[in-house]
Write a structure and sequence with these properties.
The chain is mainly β. It has one domain. About 10% of the residues lie in helices and about 45% in strands. The protein is built from 1 helix and 11 strands. The strands form 2 sheets. Strands 2, 3, 4, 6, 7 and 11 form a 6-stranded antiparallel β-sheet that branches. A 5-stranded mixed β-sheet has the order 5-1-8-9-10, with no helix packed on it. The two termini are about 15 Å apart.
Length: about 160
């Protein structure tokens, strides 16, 4: 296996730092809009007893991420066309699997939506449904499944001294 160069390591560290700063920057954070005409998007769960086996959550709206504490809650969003980033997680074979699916959708005033989906062998399908009727109201977004990373940041291997 090739040894990473010093510049490659510095570039990796700079990427981690800049992504951290991007998470802190308030301009990249989604701020819920609880106005009088807001639509709401609620997370969806498939439960087995008290345990949520499948989770369907809203991760970002128009490129702005929800705080982690807001991702499992109903999100009020201004009506209109939006780019949503949906997150799906579920256990499989002793690991937590996850998928990220983008979905373009026009939210209607004062309408309540819930996330729903279906998990296949190699991909997930996720969509918005009417919160009362549970009928699908959006296109289906499809995303590949991946194993959740066990380390939150890249592991940097020290360069041996010469």
């Amino acid at each position: 296996m090739p040894t990473p160069t010093r510049s490659a390591l510095l570039l990796a560290v700079a990427g981690v730092v800049s992504s951290f700063l991007g998470c802190v920057n308030p301009n990249t954070r989604f701020v819920p809009d609880p106005g009088p005409t807001a639509a709401t998007v609620a997370p969806g769960y498939v439960r087995q007893g008290l345990i949520a086996m499948e989770r369907y959550q809203l991760l970002a709206v128009d490129g702005r991420y929800l705080l982690e504490s807001e991702q499992g809650r109903e999100a009020p969003i201004a009506p209109g066309s939006h780019e949503l980033l949906l997150y799906v997680s579920f256990p499989a074979g002793g690991a937590l699997m996850e998928a990220f699916a983008p979905l373009s959708f026009k939210l209607e005033e004062k309408r309540a939506y819930i996330l729903d989906g279906r998990i296949g062998a190699t991909s997930v399908e996720v969509w918005l449904a009417d919160a009362q009727s549970k009928q699908r109201v959006s296109e289906v977004a499809v995303a590949g499944i991946g194993k959740r990373a066990t380390t939150p940041v890249p592991v940097v291997t020290p360069i041996p001294s010469k």
